[in-house]
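*** Protein under study ***
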Amino acid sequence: MGLPFLREFSWLAAGPVPAVCDLRRLGWRLRRAPDDPGPVDPCPLLAVPSGLPFSQWLSLTGGPSQRRRATAMLGIEDAQQRSRLLRMGFGEAFGWPVSLDELAVRIERMTERALTLPRRRRIGTLLLDMVARDGFVAGRPIGLHPREFALLWRLGEQPGYAVSGAALLCDVWRLSFRPETNSLAVHVSRLRAKLRIAGLDGLIETAPHGGYRLAVGLPADFALDGYARMGKERAHETS
């Protein structure tokens, strides 16, 4: 039984969708790429990073991990660059040319994988295991209580991005209102204490405008290096 979102895609590039990868030729619908997509947006994104402004390149490489899993990078000719993008968590990476039929199949499978809840989530030296419901550092368990694990897992969906207190109460506590107690702050304090003992002091930050975030992100030098590589490829193509 097919899912309707598998017949939609978004496009992000300096130009229009070329015929070679225009899934509309196979009956798909093109959807406008949102400026700030959510981490679980099921619509696959096809992106050609060559020619994009640096700000848009950063939005691709520094976006939520679940969004990267639903993004296919096109026009990546260098095999090492494709490998690096895949290691970063992008769902697919292609060079040219691309077979339209193969592209459609790979995008469908990429989207299915992106919507599958992973068993493990790695955040630097921290490994979160959904089955064990605990975090591990160098193979040693931290000893998280269920709600502490759920809180850390939720923050781990978007490392480096602030999650509001309201969103945490909704997703972890299943509350649609802010209670009079400071349960969230208490749990964060206890979680920080356990992370400190495990050598991860400072992992959870209080965001400037409220909420919390994990003090990790993609290496800045990768974004700069990758963007520079794209510039060299463009220069080579036009020379």
